[in-house]
Amino acid sequence: MVTPSSVELQFQKRLEGTPAQLFKKLKVSLSINSPCLILKQEEEELKTIGQETMDVSSLKDISQQLIDPSIVNHKDKGVRIYAACCIAGTLRICISNALYKQSLKTIFELFVGELRHVANPSSSYFDAYYNLLESLSAVRNIVLLTHIKNFGGIMIDLFRNIFDIIRPQQAKNMHICMSNLLQNIIYETKNLPQEIVDILLAQFLHKQKFDNPAAYRLACELCKACADKLQRYVFQYFSDIISTTEKEELTSKDMADLQTVHQLAIELNKGAPTLLLSVIPQLEEELKLSDVAIRALVTKSLGEMFAEPSSQLATQYESTWKTWLQRRNDKVPQVRIVWIESLVSLIKTHGNLAKELSEGLAEKLVDPDEKVRAIACKTIGKFDYETSLHHIQKNTLIQVGHRCRDKKKLVSKEAIHTLSVLYNQAYPEIEIGTQASISHFTWMPSAILHAVYVNDNEISSYVDNAVFTTLFPPQGNTVSRAHRLITTFAALDDKGRTGLLSVLRRSVDARYYMAAFLQLLKTKEASTNKDVDSEEYEKKLNAVIKILCDRLPDPVKSSLLLHKYAQLHDDKFYKLIYDCMDSKQPLKEIKKTAKELLSRIENVSPQIFEVFSILIQRISLTLVNSEILSELIKSIGDDEEYRLVSGELLRSISLIFPAIFRDHLVEITSMLRDSEFPGASDSLYTLAEFAKQFPKSVPADAKAKETLRSFLESGMVVQARHATIVLASIPDNDRMCKEIADSIVERLVITSTSLQRDLAVLSQLALFSPQVFETISSSVISFIIKKLLMNNTLEQESMYGPTDDWVEKQNLDEYSLSKIMGLKVLVNRAIVLHESDPASAQDAVRPVFKLLWTIINNDGELVNEKNTNAVLKSHLKLNAARLVIKLTRNRPVYEKMVTVADYNQLALVIQDPVFRVRQGFAGRIMKYLRAKELHIRYLAVLILAAHEPENEWRLQVRGFLSQQSRAQDNESKLMLNELTLARAMHLLANHPDFIQKSTPEETVFFDHQLEHSVEDLNMTAKYIEFYLETMSNSENVSLIFHITSLVKTFRFANPNDHTQNLYVLSDLSQYLIQERCRSHNWALTSYPGQVKLPRELFIPLGQSDLAVDVSATNYLLEDWVSARQHKSERKHKVTEDRKIGQAAKRRSRSPSPSEADGMNGAEGEKGLISPPRAKRTKSSKTRRVSDEPTRRYAKHHDSWDW
To answer: Tens of pLDDT along 719-729?
Structure first.
C-alpha cells in the first residue's frame, strides 16, 4: 500500500511488458531517439528521488527488468553503463538486498566490469562511469558484495581493476571515491582474500611505486585507514615467507623472496608504518639467525627503516634497536660492513641518535678486518658538511686520520680520500673564520700528509692525488688558490708542512726525470744508428725509467710499461708533456693540456694510462706555478696576517724548486730596494737558494749588487748570510767579495757590535767564495780559536741564572751566538777543502775535529777557567755534535777520521741531561739518514733513545726506526738494519751505565766471570727491546738471532773495550728474541747464510779453549731470568683474564642465546694459545724488579719522577 507521501517511479509505466517486449521497445527507442535515452532518463529520475520519499514497491518490477541478461550483457556500452547506474540508483534508494537478492552476483559483476572504463576520460559515457563510481562509494551499497557466496573472485577483480585504472592525472575526487569504495569493502569483509593483500602490498614494490604513483598513494591511504584491519593479514604474509629461514639450506628462490619481502617492509615503513606492528619483532628475530646472508639482509633493511625521516622505530621498538646496534660486533665482517653502510642516512635524518652511532662507527675504525675499516672510513666521507660538523665527533674523525697510516693500503686510500673530501667541504667556512669549522676540520690536511712518513709508494700516490685534486683543487682564480694554499699551510703542523714539501719535492723530481726521459727519446729519434751507442742509450734509459718508477705504486710493472711506450715514438706526446711542465702556462691551459695528453695515451696504449695519470699529475704545475708565486711575493709585502706563512712557503719552494723563480727575480730584487720591505729576509732566502742552483741567472747589475751589499752592512744576521750567498755566487764577483772580506777582518774584535753578522758573512764566503776566504783564513781562524772560543767575557759568565741550562737560540746573547757562528766558519772551510782536495784536507780538518771532540767530551766547556755558563755549554755541545755529523755527511775521508772511541762518545750526546740537546742531535741524525747522506752506523745511536724521558720524542724516534726498517731495499744483501743490533751491542757494552765490576784488563783475559745486577740487566734489556720493537719482524728475526749468537764467537777489536759485556748482551738479546717470538708466534729457524760483522769493531776468537768456554757459558743472572719469567706469566694471565672478561661482556650484550655462541665478537671467540714458557735454569728465589731508567739521566736529574 502506498502512503500519501510516497512517489511512484513514472518510468516504470514506459517499461511495462515482458523482457522481450521491453527489448523491442528499447530497440525502437534506440533507432529513433538519442542512444540509451530511455535508461539515461531512468538514471536521471532515480538521482532525484530520496530514500524517504520513494515507494520501494514500485522498484520491484523495474529492478528485475534491469538485470535481465539482455540488458546487462548488451553489446552497446551505453546500455550497460546506464543499466548499471540505474541498478546502483535503486540500491541507493532501497539499501537492503531485497530487490536483487538472487542476482547480486550478476549485478556486481556488471559493476566491476563497467568500472574499468572510468580510466577513459574521452569516452562519451565517462560521466556515467564516474556517477557509478561515486554512487557505489557514497552509499556504501558495495558492502552487499559480501552477501554473495564465494564473493572473493569479484572482490579481487574489483581491487585489481581499481589499481590498474587509477592514474595520477585523474581528478582528485575520483581518487577519493576509489579510496572510499575499497575502504568500505575492507572494513565490511570479515575475511579478506589473501590475493587482495597481495594486490595492496604489490603497490609498495619499487617498480610499481614509480610506474604508477597514484596506485601507490591509494595503497598508502588504504593501509593507513584500515591498519587495524590489515595488520594480521600483513603479519601472515610476512610470516609465510620469513618462515622459510628455518630451512637448513635456502634456495635461490627463497633468498629472492626474502629480499623482496624485506624491500616491501622498507616501503611499508615509508608509506604505512602502522602495518608493521607485528612484523618488526619478526625482523628482530632474523637478526639472531645463524645464516650470514639473512643477517646481512635484515641488518640492511632495518637500517633503512630506522633512517626514514619520519620514522620513530628506534624509540617504538627499543629491543629491536638495541639488537640491531649489536650487529656492529657481528662475527662476520660482511654484516658489520652492512651495518656501517646504513649509518649515512640514519645519522643525517636522526641527529638524536648520532652520538651513539658515531661511537659505534669509531669502534669500526679499529676493526680487525681491513674491509670493515675501509668501509667505515668511506662511510664518513659520505656525510655532508653540516652532518660531519654537528653529528660526527671529532675523536671519530681523528681516528680516520690515524687510518691514513694504516698498514692496509685499502684502508689508507679510503681514509685519505675521506679527510680530503671533508676538508674541501668545510674550507669555505674555514676561510671566513668559523671557529667550529676551524676546530673540527683544519687538522685534516696534516693527518693526510703524515701518511707520507709510511714511506710506501702506493700510499704516497694517494696523498699526491688528495693534495692536487681535493686539498688544493685546480679551480678558481689565482688569488683564491693562493689564499687557500696559504690558509691551509698555516694550519699544518711541522710534520704536515714537511709532508707537503715532500709532495712538492716528489713533483720536482718527477719533472726532472721526465724531462730526461723525453730528451733521451728525442735524441734517439733525431740521430742515426751510427750516432747513438745503443748500449749506452739503453743503459741511460733504464736508469731514468728506474728512477721514475721507483716512486710509483708498482715499480716493476710501471717500468715495463714505460719501456713499451718508449718504442711508440709519439711526437705529439713529447710536446704535450713539455707544455704540462711549463711554469709559465696558466692553470687553464695546463689542465686542458693534461686532459688531452691522458686522452691520447689512453687511445694509443690503454695499459699505461694508470702509470701516466700519476706521473702527469705530479709533473703538471697545478699547485705551485708562476701565477701562485706572484701572489705569494705580494703577500709577504702586503698581507700582514699571512706574511710569515707566505715567507715560509716562498723559502720552502725555493729550496725545492728554485728554477720556478727565474721569472720573478727582477720583481724580488726591486722589492728589496725598499728599506722598509717586511719580506726582505724571505726574499733574500729565495734569491740565495736560486743562486746556489743557477748562479749565472742571478741579477748582476751594479744596482742589485749594492742593494745586496747593504744587507751585509746593516741587515740582520740571516739577511746578511743570504745576501752573501747571492753575491758570492755571481760570476766574476771576486773583487767585491774581497773588499767585503778585508773590511770584516779589519773590524774583527770581540767587542764589535756586528761580530755575529760578520762571522755569518765569513761562513758563507768560506763556502761560496773559498778562493777569497783563503786569503784571510789564517787571521780569521786565529781570531776564532784564540780570542773568541777560548775566552769568556764577564757579562757572559753571569748572563743566565745558576739553574738555567737551556734557552732557545733566538734568546741567546750575541756573544754566545758569535761563538757558535765561529764554529760554523771553521767547519764550512773544512767542507770546501774536502771538495777541492780530499787527500790533503785531512791535515787541515784534524784541528777542527780535535776542537769539536774537546767540546763534546767536556760537555761544552772549552775555556781553561771553566767559567762557561750552562746555557752556552749546552748549545756548544749540541752544535759540536751536529757539526761532526755534518762533516762526515757524504764525505768518506772525514767519516774514517771518526774513530770507534770518538763514535762511542758522540753517541752519548743522545742521552744528554738537556732535552733540547738530545732532541737536536737525534733530529739531525734522522734527517741525514732519511736522505741517505750519513753512514748507516749512526742508526745504532738512535737505539740509545730507548730510555728517553720525553715520551712524545721517544715515539718519534721509534717511528723513524720502524720506517727505516720498512724502507730497507728487499734486494739488498747488506743486512744493514740487522747489523745495527751488533753495533748497538758494542755501544751498550761500553756504555757508562753498564756497570763494570772489574777492570778492562780482567775482562780481556777472562780471569773470572763478571756479574751484572738485575737492575743493570733490566736497564739494558730495554735497549734491546726498543730495537726489536722497531726493526724486527717475522722475516728477519732469524737473522737477528743469528747475529746475536754469532758475536759470542768474536771479541772486540779494541783490547780496552769490555768484551765480556758483549757476551752478556749476546745472551740477553737471545733471550729477549726468543721471548718475542713466543709472544708473536714467530717461527725462529736456523739462518742458512753467512754474516760478516763490522771489522772495525769485532775480531774472531778462532779455535781455542776460550771460544769453547764463552760458547758454553750462560752470562745471564738466574735471579733476572726468574723475575722475567714471573713477569711474563703474570702478563699472560692478565691478558687471558682480559680476553675472558671481554667475551663475557659481549655475551652480556647479546639479545638471545644464539648470540652467545660467538656472533657478537668482532672476530668470534678464538681460542687463546699460551706461548711456551722459557725453560728455567736453576730454581732460585724470584725477585720482582721494576724497570729503571739509565743512570746517565738520573745522575743529572735526581728529582725526576720515574
So the answer is: 999 999 999 99
